[in-house]
Amino acid sequence: MRVAIVTGASSGIGQSAAVQLAARGHGVVLTYHRNEDGALDTVARIEKDGGTAVALPLDVADTAAFPAFRDAVAAALRDRRDPWGRDTVDVLVNNAGFAEAVPFADMTEDRFDRLYRGLFKGPYFLTQALLPLLADGAAVVNVTSSSALAAEAEPGYSAYAAMKGGLAVATRYLAKELSPRGIRVNAVAPGPTRTRLGDDAFERFPEVIAPLAARTALGRVGEPDDVGLAIAMLAGEEGRWITAQHLEVAGGYGL
Known about the structure:
NAD(P)-bd_dom_sf, SDR_fam, NAD(P)-dependent dehydrogenase (Short-subunit alcohol dehydrogenase family)
């Protein structure tokens, strides 16, 4: 059985990616930071459909915790006698993160560093920490943002987009460096998607949905499964000849 790690899978895109990968026959190690109930809900959804999953805590901004997390993953692999039977993983989805809009004039170093640790430094060094557990031929999928592409620039997202852009550039270079082991590295860039980012911004400010949908060629905002399906595709057999790509999954936002 193939095994995947999905960070930030207690809701939204990460939850969808975990469920979609499980539906394609992966055992799933999923992580959560504060939302343990959401992570357990993801596990329950996977198990209800006949899959297998385990939830582990992880703060992706805390690089000092990565060796212990790697050990916890290795222990989970050993403890799952059936049907996993593995000591390596085949997929890593770097999804955990957060969104924060701060006008450039109001940006502080503390806020900037928080974005840096959570959105760029964390995924970068987590991938490094997990390299010993990645099987040859594995797939890494980084979740970035359409704000890092040539879509309409939104005021307040200069630091957020810069960190996501940095992860996109790193994706290309890691694809080159890890290619001797057959490891593929790609990124997906969601557009406006109905998730819990921004402290449940869509729930708190539903009036923003219609204008965003009007600026999207396909006429609506994204749903988590729109992105989760793309992640599963890149991680699976359908994506076996795709690497170093930054795929926008945004329904034509800003066209």
